From TrEMBL:
<keyword id="KW-0012">Acyltransferase</keyword>
<dbReference type="GO" id="GO:0008270">
    <property type="term" value="F:zinc ion binding"/>
</dbReference>
<dbReference type="Pfam" id="PF04389">
    <property type="entry name" value="Peptidase_M28"/>
</dbReference>
<protein>
    <submittedName>
        <fullName>M28 family peptidase</fullName>
    </submittedName>
</protein>
<dbReference type="InterPro" id="IPR007484">
    <property type="entry name" value="Peptidase_M28"/>
</dbReference>
<feature type="domain" description="Peptidase M28">
    <location>
        <begin position="107"/>
        <end position="320"/>
    </location>
</feature>
<dbReference type="GO" id="GO:0016603">
    <property type="term" value="F:glutaminyl-peptide cyclotransferase activity"/>
</dbReference>
<keyword id="KW-0808">Transferase</keyword>
<dbReference type="InterPro" id="IPR040234">
    <property type="entry name" value="QC/QCL"/>
</dbReference>
């Protein structure tokens, strides 16, 4: 997945594109409301299930738009979510990629507890970058996209399974977006085409959520998650809540509070700026602000996927959904 990376020492491209300053205006700690934890039994995230969901997506081959793998994987995703969701929506459209390429796009939305007015949007892209443009030797290779795409989807599939088994009080919408990774670096808006389409054409007219969480590259071994700059700009409150929950659960090695100054153009930008839903990006980065080494290389395969990372992300997500979905 191509993402524009910049740092607080300059003007972050993500913020520039959104006509916002790079500097994050974070609320004072004294203004943070008292958290009241709900007394509920939080489901246990089944790590083996999430790992198997990741492997299954990879087994279809690279999920590149306009290939048989795209349709096969979409069919499988729909078959997994349909019996779990209260309502399932499928958006089929055509989007215009660089060089005026017309690409089929399949967005899949699973809605849980649809009558609830307080809602959380969970999203991840399920397509694969067409080529390993960061590979050291052959940048024309295709890649499996095990972490960049499949891991986030796998976590959300397992979350969906738990939502079906134990109904939450909050409304939850899981959005799996297509054609995220077919863009070119010369035009950052050529990425996240499925998300841009959904933001302008939501599955429910006038759809709103209290906030959103984007899962992108959440399965790599020894991953670390820092507070991305654009997320701080638009969704600092719910993002800090998520980090606080993760640290309370003992996952401080994964969820770090250090400000590394990185801002990224990713799906959350368009949810924030077009759909106007405060959304933060949960994405693995290195402490120097660079992407993880397997990003956009042929090394992004099942060998980098770690069950512990999947468990840390998934269990934190379930804890937030069931115990304190709106306490921020």
């Amino acid at each position: 997945m191509y993402k524009v990376l910049s740092f607080a020492t300059g003007v972050a491209l993500c913020m520039s594109a959104c006509q916002q300053p790079t500097k994050t205006n974070q609320p004072e700690e004294s203004n943070t409301p008292q958290v009241t934890l709900q007394q509920v039994n939080v489901p246990v995230f089944q790590t083996d299930s999430a790992y198997d969901y990741t492997a299954k997506q990879v087994s279809f081959g690279p999920r590149i738009p306009k290939t048989p793998a795209q349709e096969k994987c979409a069919t499988w995703l729909i078959s997994k979510l349909k019996p779990l969701a209260d309502t399932l929506y499928v958006q089929r459209t055509t989007v215009t990629a660089p060089k005026n390429a017309q690409l089929p796009c399949i967005n899949i939305i699973a809605s849980f507890n649809p009558q609830a007015t307080q809602r959380i949007l969970l999203l991840a892209h399920w397509d694969t970058r067409p080529h390993a443009d960061q590979d050291a030797f052959d940048r024309t290779k295709q890649l499996d996209g095990a972490d960049d795409g499949a891991s986030g989807v796998a976590v959300l599939l397992e979350v969906a399974r738990q939502l079906h088994a134990q109904k939450p009080t909050a409304g939850i919408d899981i959005l799996l977006t297509d054609v995220e990774d077919s863009g070119v670096s010369e035009d950052e808006n050529s990425y996240a085409l499925g998300t841009q389409y959904w933001a302008r054409n939501p599955h429910v007219s006038g759809y709103k959520a209290n906030y959103g969480i984007l899962l992108d590259m959440v399965g790599g071994r020894a991953s670390q998650f820092f507070m991305e700059g654009g997320s701080q700009q638009y969704a600092y409150g719910p993002m800090k809540m998520f980090w606080d929950v993760a640290n309370r659960l003992g996952y401080s090695d994964y969820f770090r509070y250090e400000n590394i100054g990185a801002a990224i153009t990713d799906d959350h930008v368009y949810v924030n700026t077009i759909a106007k839903i405060p959304t933060f990006d949960l994405i693995a980065l290195q402490q120097n602000g660079n992407f993880v080494p397997h990003w956009h290389t042929s090394n992004d395969n099942m060998a980098v996927i770690d069950k512990r990372t999947l468990q840390v992300v998934g269990q934190t997500l379930l804890e937030v959904i069931y115990r304190q979905p709106f306490e921020y």
